[in-house]
Design goal:
By secondary structure, this protein is α/β, with parallel strands linked by helices. It has helices at 65-68, 81-96, 117-122, 134-142, 154-164, 182-192, 206-211, 228-236, 269-281, 286-312, 326-333, 384-390, 392-396, and strands spanning 17-27, 43-51, 57-59, 105-109, 126-131, 147-149, 167-173, 193-204, 224-225, 240-248, 254-261, 317-320, 343-344, 362-363, 375-378, 400-403, 409-410. It has two domains: 77-286, Rossmann fold (3-Layer(aba) Sandwich); 287-410, NAD(P)-binding Rossmann-like Domain (Rossmann fold). Helices cover 32% and strands 23% of the residues. The longest helix has 27 residues, at 286-312. The two termini are 39 Å apart. Residues 10-69 form the Methyltransferase putative zinc binding domain. This is Methylation protein EvaC.
């Protein structure tokens, strides 16, 4: 089954989007399949381009949001120790700064299992998460977090403001870039935000993706790849202003953007500095993406060649981390159970199912050491340090890790 809604004009400014890479048919990255669902799997053409006017990198085909973010959406933000600590720090920072006034109110877009809002709830601060995934919301609610089962957009933001009043903070992590209809999101932010409030969101950074050849960050949910320049232009169209940026190490490189109503605060020098850095990196130039495309093609060749050689030598390779981004790797590189017989993952909601597109079975974490394979293909490379420390015994017994970012290599 195929789901496409092609668009050659920019979703942000209406400019012409120039295609720079076509990954071919791709699955819904978080639709881990039951065996009975294989015949009905949706695929769409993952085509990526860049706007010649506002420079926003974006997909040219849109997947229906209710297909991507289903009630049983399996991702859980608290699954990583590193990310739990990250979100606790985010919450503590807000409590000491933007939420330190009388009766503050924070709204989180895409609150998932409530990992950030738990700290806010413990502090007794008014809060509301907005998330369409019923299963994730139930996890958050069990921890006492207030969550609304809904998509955040202009209409829901208007409803929230009427019921709760304006928000001092609107926060979102790894969600805003997922939403093709971003005009409604930003109108909703402008509606809900208090006059002196802040909209803070984190997302994978285009500069890091290009520099480190992280091509697997391109999948259905990452509809946009944000850069400081394109975000600045985008928010300005909705009466908002980018006033600060902070580079983060999470997810292989992210930016935390701070946005206010236009004129509410003076932009920091960090915005100017990042804009200059992007100019030097050539993030607005088509030639930069043409070179990136060449590197993507080389990675596909090298990874398949390595896996085929290991198979011919009788080596056993399994996958580690049934991530969203692994769907792009396996589908684009043509990796199936013949090369990687299964992938281990700690998320119960994914176990016993088949990986999207590739149909590689997902097994519990315990399968990794029963017995250890010769090689592990690390799809969750952005958590490499945490994972390798956890699986030290695998390496001590001679196991090797295969990574493909920034190039194919074995450690």
């Amino acid at each position: 089954m195929k789901a496409n809604s092609s668009k050659e004009t920019c979703r942000i400014c209406g400019g012409i989007v120039r295609q720079w890479f076509d990954f071919g048919p791709q699955p819904i990255s978080n639709a881990f399949l039951r065996h009975t669902e294989v015949a009905d799997e949706i695929r769409y053409d993952l085509v990526v381009g860049i706007c010649g006017d506002c420079t926003m990198v974006q997909q040219q085909n849109e997947c229906p949001r209710d297909r991507m973010f289903r009630p049983d959406y399996p991702y859980r933000a608290s699954g990583s120790v590193m990310m739990r600590k990250h979100f606790e720090q985010v919450a503590e920072t807000f409590l000491m700064t933007e939420l330190a006034g009388p009766d503050p109110f924070i709204v989180e877009i895409g609150s998932n299992d409530g990992v950030m809002l738990r700290t806010i709830r413990t502090a007794g601060v008014r809060h509301l998460g907005v998330d369409p995934s019923v299963d994730a919301v139930e996890v958050a609610a069990a921890e006492g977090v207030r969550v609304r089962v809904d998509f955040f957009e202009e209409s829901s933001a208007t409803s929230i403001r009427a019921a709760e009043g304006p928000a001092d903070v609107i926060y979102s992590a790894n969600t805003i870039s997922h939403i093709a209809y971003i005009d409604s999101i930003l109108r909703g932010v402008a509606t809900l935000l208090a006059p002196s409030g802040v909209f803070v969101f984190e997302d994978r950074y285009l500069g890091d993706i290009v520099e480190h050849s992280c091509f697997d960050q391109l999948y259905d949910e990452h509809f946009y790849l944000f850069a400081v320049r394109s975000v600045q232009a985008m928010v300005a169209r909705f009466g908002l202003e980018l006033v600060d940026v902070e580079h983060l190490a999470v997810h292989g490189g992210s930016i935390r953007y701070t946005v206010t109503l236009a004129g509410a605060r003076t932009p920091s020098t960090a915005v100017r500095d990042m804009l200059e850095q992007e100019r030097k990196q050539g993030l607005a130039e088509m030639e930069t993406y043409e070179r990136f495309a060449e590197r993507i093609t080389a990675i596909r060749h090298d990874l398949r060649t390595l896996l085929e050689r290991l198979r011919s030598e009788g080596r056993r390779v399994v996958g580690y981390g049934a991530t969203s981004k692994s769907a792009t790797v396996t589908s684009y590189c043509g990796i199936g159970p013949n090369l990687v017989p299964f992938v281990c993952d700690s998320t119960p909601e994914k176990q016993g199912r088949l990986s999207p597109g590739s149909r590689i079975p997902v097994r519990p974490q315990e399968a990794f050491s029963d017995p250890y394979p010769d090689y592990a293909l690390l799809f969750a490379w952005n958590h490499a340090e945490e994972i390798m420390a956890k699986e030290r015994e695998f390496s001590e017994q001679g196991g090797r890790w295969i990574l493909y970012v920034p190039t194919v290599h074995v450690v």
